[in-house]
Specification:
heterodimer, A: 485 residues, alpha/beta, eleven-stranded mixed β-sheet, 23 strands, globular, B: 256 residues, Rossmann fold, four-stranded antiparallel β-sheet, binds adenosine-5'-diphosphate, binds magnesium ion
Chain lengths: 485, 256
């Protein structure tokens, strides 16, 4: 093997920097899953009855799918069957009954978030960012509550929303992703333990970036969180989630559901920086990230925009989608997905055009290194009444080295002849020749990588809130550089 | 400045350079001529450190240092520039940003001032004029969709920006019309100075009408079979390479 090839390959073995474990006492549900587990979780949270009933329906539906072996199998990912009875569905750090302020949060937890670079203490926060921190199954801290309350904005843990705004939860929960949507959505509906809830009232432009930070800590625990964001008429919110987990040899399951709803003239911008533990160099361990994310542009002239930077997880299975129901509504999907080592990603989006003059835009950038395997799967669907629907899709792949793969499967389903769809795609390979050319101009292989990758991703990075664009760039660099062999 | 002693090199299992001897002093321009497949590009790649081009024996010193022991980027930073016969496309990376990154990496290693985008842009625009390249090209991805001529001019532009001490130019003239050839030659002549040296690799004599070499070497089958002054190029022009293709014992022995 030549040197550059060796460099290209060692890129894949760059260490994971967030892999530590926090030593903290946890309140853990009995291993395994049955109706009692579901009741146990619901009781733990003192949930209203409608919630328990919904969970139980979801659980029974999920069990039926499991028995019928109707687990999703169409995605281009490979993993051994998951033993759902050998998993823990709820784990919460033991704390006092109710936290009144950050001072009551276990300092060990605060230190955890500090190590991850997420300041929870408000005086140290990033300018203009409110954070909800989810540790294993529960939310441990939400910052800037009062500031947000002044604008009538609700931003709180899901469990708290169930206590304080049950009518809002009941109205919207499952309205975009019903529990019967798919196997993991059903599982999530049955056992989800927490997540973030957000409601932006009419005409309010949320003055802060809202952020949820997810952390899996306990071993053999699944994380099932649920996020629900509602933007009422004429409102705007930009929301970001980040995630990480300790390094462990076993695989851990993360099956989240995110639902977004925009009313007339409202806009939600939802950004994700996903950095779950991807497993080691041989492909052992890592998070299975099976996520259902969907937004509904319910009102006219509304807009939902997904931006994701997916660098972690052993397996990612994720298709943030938009239902364009309101006339003139707009859906966007900007994605960077990186797979290295033995990571697998099957990701993409679904744009369903229902209203008139609806527009969608898909920019997907897939980067594969090492033995990484990256699949883009997209569906653009134009329904009969969606006159003048427009879609632009671009899916590009960047291959680093010669052992990785990228696959593109764009589907279209058009039932209205006025639709206009455009599709572009290109693939480029970062090979020895390219790196040598850069070296010859004075660039180290690391700098060359970084330049090539940033160039490749710039259309997506531009869509991230500024603070996070910087973080995303750094994350990709951490993940792909250090190739000095 | 550059001294190549009895250099043997292989690509894969195949030995391509079979005992090259060459001495280049500061201020000199050496033309290296030879038929296709004689090993000209291989020599250029070995000097620049391309992976896969392995020196199996012999020695190369550059400014008193062991060149073959250096990483490719360190050679570049030490002032060795290679103009590629086939420039490589780097999709997604804008030429001006690419060049600034290279320029700053070189300057940083020398403890010289790194330029911010504004200052760099000013300098770049001035060099662009010298090379006669369309300024819009600097805002496009490196070599991506460039015509053959644009790629060649771009190599010369990069040389003008990076200001190397030793420029190895691998067929900068191939595929160019006369106008392009003239501007490329002009760009090369701009670099000539008492402190710098040029190794100009070419198949045809044509460019040597514009870039007058101090020495001409004929490379055949991995060996320099004859060295001489600029008149040697005219001899090749008139008679072709055939007469050199039988090994000439004498010529093999004499270093250039
Ligand atoms: N990467 C390579 N792999 C295999 N053979 C090569 C490679 N590069 C050059 N060669 C061989 O080495 C010989 C010299 O090639 P080259 O140095 O490109 O010659 P020139 O530049 O003089 O035309 C040729 O026979 C060519 O086929
Ligand atoms: Mg050649």
């Amino acid at each position: 093997m030549t040197t550059a090839n060796k460099e290209v390959n060692t890129i894949a073995s760059q260490g994971y920097k967030y892999g530590f474990v926090t030593d903290i006492e946890a309140d853990v549900a009995p291993r395994g899953l049955n109706e009692d587990t579901v009741r146990w979780i619901s009781a733990k949270k003192s949930e209203p009855d409608f919630m328990l009933q919904w969970r139980l329906k979801a659980f029974r539906y999920w069990e039926k799918l499991l028995q019928g072996q109707e687990t999703p199998s169409w995605a281009n990912v490979h993993y051994p069957p998951i033993d759902y009875q050998n998993m823990i569905y709820y784990s919460a750090p033991k704390t006092k009954e109710k936290l009144e302020s950050l001072d009551q949060v276990d300092p060990e937890l605060l230190r955890t978030y500090e190590k991850l670079g997420i300041p929870l203490e408000e005086q140290k926060r990033l300018a203009g960012v409110a954070v909800d921190a989810i540790f294993d199954s529960v939310s441990i801290a939400t910052t800037f509550r009062e500031e947000l309350a002044k604008h009538g904005i609700v931003f709180c843990p899901f469990s708290e929303a169930l206590q304080e705004h049950p009518e809002l939860v009941q109205k919207y929960l499952g309205s975009v992703v019903p529990y019967s949507d798919n196997f993991y959505a059903a599982l999530n509906a049955a056992v989800f333990s927490d997540g973030s809830f957000c409601y932006i009232p009419k005409g309010v432009r949320c003055p802060l970036e809202l952020t949820t930070y997810f952390r899996i800590n306990t071993a053999e625990t699944g994380q099932f969180e649920r996020t629900l964001i509602i933007a009422d008429e004429g409102s705007y919110v930009s929301y970001l989630e980040g995630c990480s987990a300790p390094m462990r040899d076993e695989n851990q399951l993360h099956a989240a559901v995110v639902e977004l709803i925009t009313h007339d003239n409202a806009e939600i911008k939802y950004s994700t920086i996903q950095n779950w533990y991807p497993g080691n160099e041989e492909g052992k361990g890592g998070i299975y990230n099976f996520v259902t994310k969907r937004g509904k542009c319910q009102g006219k002239n509304s807009k939902i925009s997904w931006t994701q930077v997916e660098t972690g997880s052993a397996i990612t299975w994720k298709y943030p989608s938009v239902i364009l129901q309101g006339d003139n509504s707009v859906g966007e999907f900007y994605s960077v997905a990186l797979t290295k080592g033995y990571q697998q990603a099957d990701t993409g989006t679904k744009m369903t055009h229902i209203g008139k003059n609806t527009r969608s835009k898909i920019i997907s950038k897939a980067i594969s290194a090492g033995h990484g395997n990256n699949t883009y799967r997209g569906l653009v669907k134009v329904m009969p009444k969606a006159d003048n629907a427009r879609n632009f899709t671009q899916c590009d792949s960047l291959l680093i080295g010669d052992q990785c793969g990228a696959h593109t499967t764009p589907y279209v389903e058009v039932r209205n002849s006025t639709a206009q769809l455009e599709h572009e795609a290109f693939t480029s390979r970062v090979d020895e020749d390219m790196l040598f050319y850069c070296n010859q101009r004075g660039l180290s292989t690391e700098d060359a990588q970084s330049l090539i990758i940033n160039g490749f991703c710039k259309e997506v990075f531009q869509k991230l809130p500024f603070e996070f664009a910087v973080e995303a760039t750094r994350l990709l660099e951490l993940n792909l550089e250090g190739a000095v062999g | 400045m550059l001294e190549i002693r009895n250099l043997y090199a292989s690509v894969g299992e195949v030995e391509i350079l079979k005992g090259i001897n060459l001495k280049v002093k500061a201020g000199e321009v050496h033309a290296l001529m030879g038929p296709n497949g004689s090993g000209k590009s291989t020599l250029a790649f070995v000097l620049a450190g391309k992976p896969g081009y392995v020196a199996t024996s012999g020695k190369v010193t550059y400014q008193g240092e062991d060149l073959l022991g250096m990483k490719p980027e360190d050679r570049a930073r030490a002032g060795v520039f290679l103009s590629f016969q086939h420039p490589v496309e780097v999709p997604g990376v804008r030429l001006d940003q690419f060049l600034r990154a290279g320029f700053n990496a070189i300057h940083k290693s020398k403890g010289l001032e790194e330029l911010d985008p504004l200052k760099f842009d000013r300098m770049l625009r001035q060099r662009v004029k010298v090379v006669g390249i369309d300024p819009a090209l600097t805002k496009r991805s490196v070599n991506d969709g460039f015509s053959g001529g644009e790629k060649k001019r771009n190599e010369v532009l990069q040389m003008a920006v990076l200001e190397p001490t030793l420029a190895i130019l691998d067929e900068p003239d191939s595929g160019l019309d006369v106008d392009a050839l003239r501007t490329v030659a002009q760009g090369i002549n701009q670099l000539r100075s008492p402190e710098k040296a040029i190794l100009l690799v070419t198949h045809y004599q044509r460019i040597l009408n514009y870039v007058i070499p101090d020495f001409v070497h004929v490379l055949v089958d991995g060996r320099i079979v004859k060295s001489g002054g600029k008149e040697l190029a005219l001899e090749i022009e008139a008679e072709g390479y055939e007469k050199f293709e039988q090994p000439q014992e004498e010529a093999i022995q004499s270093p250039g």
